[in-house]
Specification:
About 55% of the residues lie in helices and about 5% in strands. By secondary structure, it is mainly α. The strands form 2 sheets. Strands 1-2-3 form a 3-stranded parallel beta sheet. α11 packs antiparallel against α14 (about 300-325) and α12 (about 270-285) crosses α13. The longest helix is centred in the last third of the chain and has 29 residues, at about 330-360. The protein starts with 13 loop residues before the first helix and ends in a 5-residue tail after the last helix. The structure holds tryptophan (TRP).
Length: about 375
């Protein structure tokens, strides 16, 4: 790490975020109750194996370590870059089914809720907006990227301000650990800046209200789609979903892109498509991708795909069986959400009360 006297600020670099993330992970294992994890997804569709290996397994693992965990479904955020809203409710319930099937166990310390149901959380938006400048919002690299990739020409204010709303999501419950991918780091940075400004301006002579949340980066590198050259995502049509059947999984893998070379080798630079399929097998079987390649050898891409189909269907068998049970029980899914809403609101009311008091607005 660079020393503190140089102008270069190591905290701003990705490598520094990775280092901090490792230290955080080690401390969580020792002091789980010192932390509150806040994590979430937009309800834009079903979860796929990229989510599963990249974030879902991590969430299950951390919640089982005894860390209080809030899983928020960011339904308002869907409106910032999607015109369609007809499936939000359905997608929300499907997300809950995916979480539970993967091993998330809702209870006193693990809660799941949509943020649109927590008015006291959303109300933090107004004071928080006064702590952020316009130029800060328009500089946000993730927002810029999203505007560009969605081809938006007429950008709504929700798009520029959703990172402030994300700060409300994190700070209303005093979340201090946020497991995210690299693209979300600018939002965590903004959340920290809002927490700092709020504490500085409104908490003079009293205890600070908000913690400084930290990002927890996933150890799994981002999973490529079945086309092998871009991130797995629903919109790119290159994903295998947790809800796919075993036969659908086999058919999708059959169509996966490989290359003309017969002998299977693990060479991520020159053979990214084959390497991706080998990595996926490795994630299921915990084997080294190069060893898997050596075993398949000259049996070629047909054998590679057969191995992946078997490994993935095996890995997801229990999850899918549980998923099918949960799908039949919509009342239970609603109950999980409504209990999550009750618990999240109780926390939000408490924080809003402290915030009102600090801002001298109590009557
Ligand atoms: N922006 C996140 C995404 O697109 C979703 C999200 C909303 C979120 N609020 C959050 C993630 C708070 C972590 C913490 O996936």
């Amino acid at each position: 790490m660079a020393d503190e006297n140089t102008e270069f600020d190591p905290n701003k670099t990705f490598e520094a975020a990775v280092e901090r993330s490792k230290a955080l992970e080690a401390d969580i294992a020792v002091n789980p109750k010192k932390y509150r994890v806040l994590t979430g997804d937009r309800p834009t569709g079903r979860l796929h194996i990229g989510h599963y290996f990249g974030s879902l397994q991590n969430r299950v693992r951390i919640s089982k370590m005894g860390v209080p965990t809030m899983i928020l479904i960011a339904d308002y955020q869907v409106l910032t870059d999607h015109d369609a809203f007809d499936k939000i409710s359905q997608n929300t319930k499907q997300l809950v089914i995916d979480y539970l099937a993967a091993g998330i166990e809702p209870g006193d310390d693990v809660i799941i809720y949509p943020h649109s149901y927590i008015p006291e959380c959303n109300q933090l938006m107004l004071p928080f907006m006064t702590l952020v400048s316009n130029s800060e919002l328009s500089r946000n690299p993730t927002v810029k990227e999203e505007i560009q990739s969605a081809g938006l020409t007429n950008v709504n204010a929700g798009m520029y301000t959703y990172p402030i709303h994300q700060a409300c999501d994190i700070l209303f419950c005093k979340g201090n650990v946020v497991p995210v991918g690299k693209d979300q780091l600018p939002h965590i940075e903004l959340t920290r800046s809002i927490a700092k400004s709020f504490n500085k301006k409104f908490c003079k002579g009293r205890d600070p209200i908000f913690p400084m949340p930290q990002a927890l980066l996933s150890k799994t590198p981002s999973i490529m789609g079945l086309d092998g050259n871009q991130k797995m995502s629903k919109s790119r049509n290159n994903a295998i979903f947790l809800c796919n059947t075993e036969d659908e999984t086999a058919a999708l893998i059959k169509k996966a892109k490989t290359d003309g070379e017969r002998v299977i080798t693990y060479d991520p630079v020159n053979r990214p498509e084959v390497a991706n399929l080998l990595s996926l097998i490795g994630l299921c079987t915990k084997e080294n991708p190069a060893d898997i390649a050596a075993r398949i050898g000259d049996r070629g891409s047909g054998e590679l795909k057969k191995c992946l189909t078997e490994a993935l269907n095996e890995e997801l068998r229990l999850l899918r069986a549980k998923r099918a049970e949960l799908e039949k029980n919509e009342d239970y899914i609603r109950k999980v959400l409504l209990e999550g809403v009750d618990k999240a609101r109780a926390i939000a009311c408490q924080t809003l009360d402290e915030v009102r008091e600090a801002m001298n607005m109590k009557i």
